[in-house]
Amino acid sequence: MTAHLERTETAAVGEKQPAAAVAAKRRRRRRRTTLVAFAMLAPALIALITMRIVPLVSAVSQSFQHVSLATGESSFDGLANYVYLFTDPGFYSVLVVTLVFNLILNPVIVVLSTALALLTVQQLPLVGLWRSMIFVPAAVPGAVVALIWSTALQPDGLVNALLELVGLPPQPFLTSANQAAFSIGIMVTWGALGYWMIFIIAGLKDIPSSLYEAAALDGAGWWRRLFSITLPLLKRPMAFVLIACTVGSFLLFAPVQLLTKGGPNGSTNLMMYDIYNRTYLLGDVGVGQAEVVVLMLILSIIVVIQFRLLREEKG
Predict the structure, then answer these.
(1) CB atoms within 10 A of CB 223
(2) Residue 181 near residue 259 (C-beta atoms within 8 A)
(3) Nearest Cα to Cα of residue 268 among 148, 187, 169, 171
């Protein structure tokens, strides 16, 4: 009996040891996998911290400080920069210009990119070539886009030459307070359409073809299928494009800085250029950083709206 119990205890200990060893091996594997994951993510995390988090913290800190132009020394100034900013009529003018620019431009980009996506998913001859040609401007840097269009919109440029061919008078474009923002909008639209079109095409590819087949059997035409199937099921991709495009437009800087310097008469003085102007040209670092914080708050609200629009409906 005693020998039997000893053999039983020895077997139990033998079973426990492999189980413990397996558990330890799994823990070591998990640690190794975690370390590998952190090593692979490290470059992106370092870039995120140094290029996003650190400037964010620095902007918030400097927005509460006053920097002396004579000595370069900074001192805590409380909410004085924010008070100055929100009592400056020029800031409200910049805010209005930025909001109006976005309210007009971004829906136009969404509508045009959706129309191009709908067109290029059809069985057209050389459809791949057309898609590539539409996407090419998206691969061109913003500064290059601005220089291309600045040449085309000169008084003796290509666009006025085309207008003269059809009997229309030449237009001032970038030198007119009424047309400068519109001209900047044309540049941005031309450069952005191909990029956002790709997202809409991806959304179109996700729509089951069986829905169109069933609608065709019921006698629904192309327009009925568009408004009853395509556009409702494109709600999420279109919402993403609208919000992401809005964020990009709020951060628009290169065309304004290169072509109009915020003019004429402040008609293209968007928030990013106004921040640059206050911080680097006027040397008012504290107020400039306070405007950065305001811009970040506006973009945060937009991101919250984005998550609400993209949230899955709960059935």
Answers:
(1) 8
(2) no
(3) 187
Tens of pLDDT along 146-177?
888 888 988 888 899 999 999 889 889 988 88
State how far the alpha carbon of 273 is from the alpha carbons of 3, 78, 141, 249, 261, in Å: 89, 25, 18, 12, 8
* pLDDT tens per residue, range 23-44: 777 888 888 888 888 888 888 8
Please give the full DSSP string across 162-202, using - where no structure is assigned: HHHHTTPPP--GGG-TTTHHHHHHHHHHHHHHHHHHHHHHH
Beta bridge pairs of residue 67 = 74
pTM: 0.81
> Where do the DSSP E strands lie in the chain?
65-67, 74-76
CATH class of 88-310: mainly alpha
CA atoms within 13 A on the CB side of 287: 21
The two three-digit tokens of residue 243, written as one number: 């919000």
Residue 253 to residue 271: CA distance in whole angstroms: 9
Q: Which two tokens stand for residue 15?
A: 């079973």
Report residue 60 as tokens: 């918030």
